[in-house]
Amino acid sequence: MASQKNIVVIGASVAGHTFVNTIAPQLPAGYRVILVERNEFIVHLPTVVRSCIVPGWESKNLTSRLTQENVFPTGSRHRVLCPNSVVELRTNSVVLSEAFEGSTELAFEKCIIATGAQQGAPFRPAAGSSLDEYKTFLRNMQNDIKAAESILIVGGGTVGVETGGEINALYPKKQVTIVHSESGLLHPDATAAPAGFTTFPTTGAKVSANLQKQLGVRGVKVYLNDRAILQPGQSGPLGSRQSIPLKSGETVEADYVLVSVGNVPNSAIVKAADPAAVSANGYVIVDSLFRVVPGSSASPLAGEYYALGDVAALPSWRTSVSASAEGPALGNIVAAEIKGKSPKAYTPASMTGACIVTLGDKGGAGQLPMPIFGTVSAPGFILGMKSKDFFARQFDARFTGATKVSTAA
Ligand SMILES: Cc1cc2nc3c(=O)[nH]c(=O)nc-3n(C[C@H](O)[C@H](O)[C@H](O)COP(=O)(O)OP(=O)(O)OC[C@H]3O[C@@H](n4cnc5c(N)ncnc54)[C@H](O)[C@@H]3O)c2cc1C
């Protein structure tokens, strides 16, 4: 297969996989996709907020093993390398952790960086963890939450709020407290945009206020403009009730601490190749064709490197909604380039500003940007749709190989 020109894709979650599904059918003979994924499985991350709380949800609606058979049709020339990792980016080639076709160095025509973000479990599986290990982690956490009486959630972004809502829905008598550094839940403060990434949008103040009101009615305490002062290792089950100091001087009593902050771009391999291609807050700098902007023409990244999804500095929220718009857009750009046509620059569609936040099986709030009407509050049926299966059908639909994936709840 040495004569094949490789389109290497690093990371097989929303961004990488939607790119692959768009580019693979458009590639002329002589080109093939090589999809590299370090974990043996892919997680539908929106479901995690329930799977770490509600017993049984670790087994449904959440994960799928990534195989040649469930990604590509039978007999396809395209390849899934999984589990395998890209450990180094070079000029026109990448280095793999495991050899493929006799070598750990893999030459490419184009390389797509879709390495996403990283955060501690449960919110993202540890690099290299097996599916069984991840499910065991989730089951242990469900048991620890069941045993806890008072849970402190550090971070009131979407994930912290949704997880608090899930705990409250299942265990209404447990005390749940959310401590958040901004003036409202989610991200209403423009000043909170990460340094060097000024285009990161804010969430609507109405959505924040609505969520806070609903949580208040349910007895969930919310501290805003504040920070928990945690000791090293003070997360998960504490073994006993402890007083956790806040920066404001208040204290929160808790026997379980869930840290829902620290979601950072997974850009280490890019930074190692060219530190100037990564912004101060860790995002890979790209242009409107998703091309990585190298520090200099001598950079190994000065060739055919692209980045998208959670790892890339693009002007919309780093969400599954955005990643699943960027994958097809980049697929069409690369297909056009290969065919010698002018590619169309990417601008985020208004839907990438959608934000739907559920609170267990009932309630929640959100915003939907609509053409002509502008941004409107998310109607109840949309919240209900998300809460029912966290849009898992979209996850299943990504797997277009002969072996079907079904994570339906
Ligand atoms: C708990 C949680 C809930 C969320 N809920 C929502 C929601 O309700 N709605 C929404 O729109 N968004 C939600 N998001 C955000 C959404 O999941 C992300 O924006 C989306 O997953 C980004 O996709 P991605 O493909 O860019 O990156 P990721 O999903 O992070 O995937 C990156 C992939 O790359 C792989 N990888 C990394 N490095 C390498 C390497 N060197 N070699 C090979 N493979 C590698 C990883 O294993 C991973 O599979 C949520 C996120 C979390 C954490």
Summarize the helices and strands and which ones pair or pack.
Layout: E1 5-10, H1 14-23, E2 31-36, E3 41-43, H2 48-51, E4 63-65, H3 68-71, E5 79-81, E6 86-90, E7 93-100, E8 103-107, E9 110-113, E10 117-118, H4 131-147, E11 150-154, H5 158-170, E12 175-179, H6 205-217, E13 221-223, E14 236-245, E15 251-259, E16 264-265, H7 268-273, E17 284-285, E18 305-307, E19 312-313, H8 320-338, E20 355-358, E21 364-370, E22 374-377, H9 380-389, H10 392-398
Parallel strand pairs: 1-2, 1-9, 2-5, 9-18, 11-12, 11-15, 12-13, 17-19
Antiparallel strand pairs: 3-4, 6-7, 7-8, 10-16, 14-15, 20-21, 21-22
Helix pairs in contact: 1-8
Flavin-adenine dinucleotide (FAD) binds at residues 10-16, 36-39, 42, 45-46, 48-49, 85-86, 114-117, 119, 123-124, 159, 266, 269, 309-310, 318-321, 323.
Describe the structure.
By secondary structure, the protein is of the alpha/beta class. The chain has a domain at 5-121 and 264-347: FAD/NAD(P)-binding domain (3-Layer(bba) Sandwich). It has helices spanning 14-23, 48-51, 68-71, 131-147, 158-170, 205-217, 268-273, 320-338, 380-389, 392-398; strands at 5-10, 31-36, 41-43, 63-65, 79-81, 86-90, 93-100, 103-107, 110-113, 117-118, 150-154, 175-179, 221-223, 236-245, 251-259, 264-265, 284-285, 305-307, 312-313, 355-358, 364-370, 374-377. The strands form 7 sheets. Strands 5-2-1-9-18 form a 5-stranded parallel β-sheet, with helices on one face. It has a 5-stranded mixed β-sheet with strand order 13-12-11-15-14. A hairpin with a 2-residue loop joins β6 (86-90) and β7 (93-100). Flavin-adenine dinucleotide binds next to α1, α2 and α8. It holds the Pfam family Pyr_redox_2. This is FAD/NAD(P)-binding domain-containing protein. Residues 6-322 form the FAD/NAD(P)-binding domain. Belongs to the FAD-dependent oxidoreductase family.
